């Protein structure tokens, strides 16, 4: 079964390990083996997020933990798990077979040689067209296994759950290359083992996994349905701390927040707000030192309010992220979210905000790197996680901060050529950041599409700024000279229209009227009022007239006014 999940990550020698081997190595001490499994899970958690490309080593550790657990669970548990997975494994019930050695996945043929089975394996995944896949027990060994005591069996399946959860997180957020079959099989195996344990906190985690999995593979309705099940099942006092202890954070709240933005982009404002209200109630009860859930949720909820144009609420909820005196995985994103909320509060009332020189230099530093001319495909796992769990990832948030800086400099008096040059550099930097997020090979997949659509929309806005600022500097900037580092002067209008057109088409295709409304609004602001009004009216028709007050607020607060 494990080869269905990660054939390449499992070393050849490990595939030959049997229950008898483990019994000998651990001197029949099942508690020592359980401690080893827990250590594998802990190591996987630590190297997966902290080390460069640690997800590769972490995924191997998680697979080892899962394999070992499958070898030493009781026969009844093993049969229950495999019977629950017959759609993936074939139609031969596992209780009709002996399970007394390592598990080898083979095609439906008569070969019984272990070496031949191992050497001819591919990256084994379900392929019902090539014949039934079967699980065979390796009977080719030099010692008899009947002497293994029944006592060398694991009763507590929960020790393996962090391995399932961690591996699925790697498959979701890292460039590990897992495909839909691998993820779906692993998720269903996780569901099967948690049902054996029958503990609500673990069943809750599997529902989070399934919700994200459905979203990743385009079944948004089922993703939202699972999310509603999570809300109905969630009990903060009984489950929050346990989720953080077992899985690193309260994934139920993280999932509910991700689905809140999904509801919003689909134009279901009432359902989106219901999720946010649920989250805010729970966040008041979270202990921020138990896990990073509270700090991360603050940033995600702030991003939701930013999408609505409710900047004051965004700033209120994000307050304190930067001051958090401990590091956590998503803090880099949280800092940016808090800064973005505060800057938009000031800009909304046309009040100039002040930043430190270091903040400005950090945003503009990208212009001194090779990212101006190329796309970095090997990004930290944090970048990919952010684009999955939030509607705007790190690069897109930095681009939004660049636009804030342009607008802020517009308030500066007197407004001289030096100010315009500085604005121009921020427009360039913002476009470089967007190039990084939009240029990823999987940027437009289902689970990251919200970030992709927002990136296209932001790109059109920044291209318009770039064009206006370049025109103001036309006496000193020429097409193709050293100041035109992006080589786009003169092409901004056409490129912006292509971005808006793609955003429009994707919003139609996948049912995101919220984005369609923003696109229409920007068309109008850029001069194409008939087209803009048509798109806005279509979006309002899908979102419902009962939301008109909030819709009007969104439209007004996301207006594009380039005054330079």
UniProtKB/TrEMBL annotation:
<protein>
    <submittedName>
        <fullName>Uncharacterized protein</fullName>
    </submittedName>
</protein>
<keyword id="KW-0067">ATP-binding</keyword>
<dbReference type="GO" id="GO:0004016">
    <property type="term" value="F:adenylate cyclase activity"/>
</dbReference>
<dbReference type="GO" id="GO:0005524">
    <property type="term" value="F:ATP binding"/>
</dbReference>
<keyword id="KW-0547">Nucleotide-binding</keyword>
<dbReference type="GO" id="GO:0005737">
    <property type="term" value="C:cytoplasm"/>
</dbReference>
<dbReference type="InterPro" id="IPR011990">
    <property type="entry name" value="TPR-like_helical_dom_sf"/>
</dbReference>
